[in-house]
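How a chain folds remains the central question behind the approach discussed here. In the encoding step, the backbone of a single protein was reduced to a row of integers, each denoting a local shape. We regard such an encoding as a compact summary of how the chain folds. The sequence in question and its structure tokens are set out directly beneath this paragraph:

___
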Amino acid sequence: MIYLDSAATTFQKPPSVSRAVQNAMRTMSSPGRGGYALAQRAEETAFRCRSLAAELFGVPSPEQVVFTFNATHGLNIAIKSLVPKGGRVLVSGYEHNAVTRPLHALGARVRVAASPLFDRTAALRAFENALSPELDAVICTQVSNAFGFILPVEEIAALCRAEGVPLIIDAAQSAGILPIDLAALGAAFIAMPGHKGLYGPQGTGLLLCAHDAKPLIEGGTGSASLEQTMPEFLPDRLEAGTHNMPGIAGLEAGLRFVRQRRERIERHERALIAHVSEWLRAMDGVTVYAAREPSAQIGVLSFNVDGREPEETAAALALHGFALRGGLHCAPYAHRTAGTLPNGTVRLSVSAFTSPAEIDAFVRALRSIART
């Protein structure tokens, strides 16, 4: 099987990640739950992971790095910390259900800064025209999970700072690939999964916090146990219950892998997407959603085969030995913006482990499918 679904999760991991997971299961208990060696080893590993993430993502202190189950968990914390019931929120036209469903549950009044696919100038203009001080929050994905469109979050962050409106960034498809700096952006929160571009295990994520946060769940923290309210200090305030230490140890290994080669990963993914885009544009019977300017897209490419439903094409590719995803990719806002509702697209997504030879093999298989 040639795996081309890394926007869902990176299936191929560095060997150091699985080693770290197995070592944690053998040698660690729970951080903050004892002074014995197994607990101390867990405490040290968790702190190293926080510190490494703080270094990579411009976070002033490791305590502002909160462990989550995934990016969705982090986004729920961020949204429910800033947005009251019926609150006012501005979002991009490319948001994932991890953003839009919590807003719907809150009954938020959502304004969409819609703009054409791959037009960064228009995206910035849409935010500029819709931004106002009475908003409770602005939420923007850095990279569309359906199309790989890189939104101009640095410029959007500057607009939010000027208006005094807190910004939440969904870095689910950008963390580990594009540069991210919490302090420079001035964002209130940045949420990211551990299992995608950070090459950690599933069930891990990070929430970078520069704003007061409300706990999503309450429970034991190993600290301030006499109090019946959650601690006021981070990270304990947002980390109720026992930590996923095998996951955190694996995530630390993934972060080390990324720290050594983030720029190479970015160049590699850009080159692969540009390469497959060129092939698909020249292929009869295929509609491809690719940026004319390569700087506007990374990691993800959507396409459709004429006369076939996206799931049908993905199933045909699976029979040829390729793992891709067809449909709406949990992002109906993005497909509405791009005009690909109701059926969506087939999504190809790459990682540091995807090779040019695998892309060439995919192109040959798709050409065969399109002809039939």
Summary: DSSP finds eleven helices and 13 strands in the chain. The mean pLDDT is 97.
